[in-house]
Specification:
With about 280 residues, this protein is an alpha/beta fold. It is about 35% helix and about 20% strand. It has two domains: about 1-50 and about 100-140 and about 190-275, 3-Layer(aba) Sandwich (Rossmann fold), CATH 3.40.50.1220; about 50-95 and about 140-185, SIR2/SIRT2 'Small Domain'. The structure holds adenosine-5-diphosphoribose (APR).
């Protein structure tokens, strides 16, 4: 949130701007934008019912720390435990729908020549909502690959073509190594092509809308900094300040499912006024 210095009768007060006023200020930053980048994290999917990575895990998985499960070592040590956790999460994600925040991001494509979504999420909800240019930095929980990448990186495996259960990581049909989710685990490199495209977009965008990320995990957390260095305006949407807030030109404090539709409405109103 940004304060405004208000002087009334010689008394200086720092009054918080209303969210509406901050949204109007954010909308102004999009004027003339040709390339809009949307950098999203787990928070944008929270209102769809997908727990964020750093939320406490529910129920059965509460006793496990995700950062202990989402690693190559964990998979080597106990492939069936890791497989079961991802099957549970894939089922959870398959049962939920994109929320108003995802759909607001889709609407940006009607207002700007190019909109590219750079997401850390593996839930596929941006694509299901209808975003047409999505870079999945951390892969997808709905895609699977041979853990040995026996036919090139990645060797994608079509689960519908093999026998498998929710409890046991099945063998690769080509080489017998275990099948795993096509996601980036802690300690693993991001897909080079995705990473290169993300930094290229960050370097060239006019505005970067940063939504629902704690701004902790690298290299994704560096994207807004690259955008800022390249002259882009940074607008952040999050109920809490985090690692990106210090460089945000406007920080819209609130849940993205509520704030993003209001930002899009303000952008549409501004566009109508400008084309009168
Ligand atoms: N709307 C917007 N943001 C929200 C909402 C909401 N309704 N609810 C929570 N948030 C914010 C939290 O305040 C937090 O800043 O979403 C963010 C979630 O942070 P993390 O759980 O750290 O998720 P993320 O930033 O995406 O993590 C990055 O780290 O754990 C790894 O690979 C994993 O992709 C993940 C990456």
């Amino acid at each position: 949130m940004r304060g405004r210095l208000a002087i009334d009768g010689g008394v200086c007060t720092i009054g918080r701007m209303t969210l509406e006023a901050e949204i109007a200020e954010a909308a102004r930053l999009f004027d003339g934008a040709q390339l809009v980048a949307v950098a999203s994290g787990a928070g944008i999917s929270k209102e769809s019912g997908v727990p964020t990575f750093r939320d406490a895990q529910e129920g059965l998985w509460a006793r496990y720390d995700p950062q202990q499960l989402a690693t190559p070592e964990a998979f080597r040590r106990n492939p069936d435990l890791v497989w079961s956790w991802y099957m549970y999460r894939a089922d959870l994600v398959g049962a939920v729908e994109p929320n108003a925040g995802h759909y607001a991001v889709v609407e940006l494509e009607e207002l700007f020549p190019r909109v590219v979504v750079l997401t850390q999420n593996v839930d596929g909800l941006h694509i299901r909502a209808g975003s047409t240019d999505v870079v999945e930095l951390h892969g997808s929980i709905r895609r699977f690959k041979c853990s040995a990448n026996c036919r090139g990186d990645p060797t994608i495996i079509d689960l519908s073509a093999i026998e498998y259960t929710g409890e046991t990581a099945p063998p690769c049909p080509y080489c017998g190594a275990r099948v795993r989710p096509d996601v980036v685990w802690f300690g693993e490199a991001l897909p080079p092509a995705a990473l290169e495209r993300a930094f290229e977009v960050a370097s060239r965008c006019d505005v970067m809308l940063v939504v629902g990320t704690s701004g902790i995990v690298q290299p994704a957390a560096s994207l807004p900094y690259r955008a800022k260095q390249s002259g882009a305006a940074i607008v952040e949407v999050n109920p809490q300040p985090g690692g990106i807030t210090p460089i945000a030109d406007v920080f819209l404090r609130g849940p993205s499912g509520r704030v993003l539709p209001r930002l899009v409405a303000a952008l549409r109103a501004r566009r109508r006024k400008q084309t009168r």
